[in-house]
Amino acid sequence: MPPSRKPLLVLFLTVFVDMVGFGIVIPVLPLYAERFDASPWAIGWLTGIYSGMQIIFTPILGKLSDRYGRRPVLMLSLAGTAVGFWLMGIADSLMLLFVARIFSGITGGNISIPQAYIADVTTPETRSKWMGMIGAAFGLGFTFGPMIGGIMSRISYSAPFYFAAALAAANVILLYFILPESLPKEHRAKPHEDAPVVEVFRHGHGWMFGGVVATYFFLVCGFTIMTAFFALFTARRFGYDAHANGYLFGFIGIVTVIVQGGLIGRLVTIFGETTLARTGLLLTAASLLALPFCTNLPLLLLVCAGLSCGSGFASPPLNGLASQLIERSWQGRALGLLQSAGSAARLIGPLLGGWLLMFDLNKPTARYGETAFYAAAVICLIGAAIAFCLKRPPADRVPGTIPVASSV
Predict the structure, then answer these.
(1) pTM score, two decimals?
(2) 58: which of 6, 267, 337, 340 fits an S-S bond (Cβ 3.0–4.6 Å)?
(3) Where are the domains of the chain?
(4) Tens place of pLDDT for every residue, the chain, 408 residues?
(5) Over the range 15-43, which residues count as b (16 or more CB within 10 Å of their CB) and which as e?
(6) Homologous superfamily in CATH for domain 5-184+195-396
């Protein structure tokens, strides 16, 4: 029986609002921090500490959702997100800004909960399609978030954070009245079954789940190197300012929405998760290798489309494959661990890319960025090599679906 679309669309809106809040920070936070005399080094840590907290707390939130249900933990994390943004808006010192970012990182690692919800209520055949809808929400949020942040910063640097806090609070109210629970009590993890998160590997066909996690890490790490330094590359190569780069990121987001929101379900049906993940990683690596050779806007847009398609082809199938390897009561912990690996990649990628970019400072403009982008391509190729070892579990070993309970 197909799942009700209403709760899945609510989850789509939840992730979209989450990503709008995340994207709002991108153009505003560095300038906001400079008001408190923050150095570039401090701004770098202020940006990265959010992902650093998610490395630790995303699996914990997933684990809590396995025990207490998806709905209450998701509502609690979104309420924390609202508080975190509010603290950023009222911050009157760099220390309070750091506290707000740390708090937001702790409560904001909730992406695994909508993914676990989807795993609860979908069949293995349709799971990657709905995981793609989550990816589409990511793309839309990443497209509109920076634009909203830039526009509202004209009011004040605090205004975007207050706006994001209001969005998160409204999302909590929406979830309370509309979203039903997906994990019945009989399928929840029991207190006496409490075990370290690493136990999830034993419940995930051993090394196979570890392979999915490693593949996802290398995909996100390579892609994040590109996103972190894309603006510097286009500024040096083409003379583009922040406004022009906003349109380029918007283009990347739109292609991502088309791929993950419209195509991924059909492509998974035709080719399967493993083939699509391998193809996506190879396409991402090829696009990263081609990026330093871009000499005009049409070629740049073509490579950007390749990067969006590559990431869009690989990410939802990897999430879907991870959920198929894990039994019901471990879905939150498993997908939390997967997203924690992604957060680690979003922390390590920019640090590695920034160090590699130092080697290109004295090179001619035509060669600027090649060291970091070539390294990112190699990282994605490593992920592709691991992906060629992955296999979809037999149908009789794939966790089934769970009916959606009534709304409170």
Answers:
(1) 0.70
(2) 340
(3) 5-184+195-396
(4) 345 567 777 888 888 877 887 777 776 776 788 788 877 567 767 877 887 888 888 778 877 888 888 889 989 999 998 999 999 999 989 999 999 999 988 888 777 788 778 878 777 667 667 777 776 777 778 778 877 877 787 788 888 899 989 988 988 998 888 888 877 777 666 655 555 555 555 554 557 888 888 999 999 999 988 877 777 788 788 887 666 776 787 788 788 878 877 787 788 888 888 899 999 999 999 999 999 999 899 999 999 999 999 988 998 888 888 877 776 666 666 777 787 788 888 888 877 887 887 788 788 777 888 898 999 999 999 999 999 988 776 554 444 443 333 333
(5) bbbbbbbbbbbbbbbeebbeebebeeebb
(6) MFS general substrate transporter like domains (1.20.1250.20)
Q: Are 101 and 49 in contact (CB under 8 A)?
A: yes
**Alpha-carbon distance 320 to 207, whole Å?**
17
How many residues are given for the chain? 408
